[in-house]
Amino acid sequence: MDFDILRRTMIDTQIRTWDVLDPRVLAIVTEVKRELFVPTAYRHLAFADYAMPIAHGEHMWTPKMEARILQELDLREHHRVLEIGTGTGHMAALMARLSGMVHSVEDRADLSQMAEGHLRVQGIHNVQLHVGDGSCGWAGHAPYDAICVTGSLPALPEAFKEQLAVGGRLVVIIGKGPAMRAQRITRTQQDVYETAVLFETEVTPLRHAPVPGRFVF
User: Is the peptide bond prior to 143 cis by the omega test (within 30 degrees of 0)?
Assistant: First the structure.
């Protein structure tokens, strides 16, 4: 299979049509070899508009969603980034190429180990992998200039907002299927946050996500 042709087609027919036009993002999507991050059995579908199953009932985001979120994060070379949900390591690789350091948290050790191998093959060394529960962020290296949560949450724990640097951006998917919304939250001042709804989607829920309290009558 000619992966380079498939990659160009993916960018033109999926990613650009989703309003992803930032040349830096398009360049990184071209450079990072997505086919090397997907399970071997699905490599022929690496560039399909398809949520790729990986292991444990988890899925990779579609290519257009990865690129759109990357654009919304607006990463710069000096940024420190937090990713919750490492998966195969592909999103971490994309973010690493645009930022200074990515801290990626995965609660399944085998997935983290697989991602480590993928990143090593790609020659990416500015990703620090952590195994643990990131359902309320990862305070050890906060504050972050950008936070990306790859699993959905029924509601957003305040800890994520608190771990953002002023000027930082958090992209997260909130809600329960099928009514989930991708949101970008920007910390504009110490105690001021601005929220923008980006699009509707449905992705695998984040494990261990705190459940919002219910009223008791």
Answer: yes
- Residue 155's nearest CA partner among 130, 131, 175, 134 is 175
pTM for the model stands at 0.94
Question: What is the distance between the alpha carbons of residues 164 and 185, in angstroms, rounded to a whole number?
Answer: 10
Q: Which fold has domain 3-201?
A: Rossmann fold (3.40.50)
pLDDT-derived band at 120 (thresholds 50, 70, 90) equals very high
- Of the pLDDT bands very low, low, confident and very high (cuts 50, 70, 90), residue 115 is very high
* pLDDT for res 214: 52
Task: Note every long-range contact of 106-112, with CB atoms under 8 Å and residues 24 or more positions apart, other chains counting.
Answer: 106/130, 106/131, 106/134, 107/131, 107/132, 107/133, 107/134, 107/207, 107/208, 108/55, 108/56, 108/58, 110/55, 111/54, 111/55, 111/56, 111/58, 111/86, 111/87, 112/86
What per-residue string of b and e applies to 64-92 under the rule 16 or more CB within 10 Å gives b? bbbbbbbbbbbbeeebbbbbbbbbbbbbb
Q: What's the mean pLDDT in 124-135?
A: 97
Task: Give the model's pLDDT for residue 217.
Answer: 44
Strands (E) located in the chain: 80-84, 101-106, 127-131, 144-149, 164-176, 179-189, 192-201
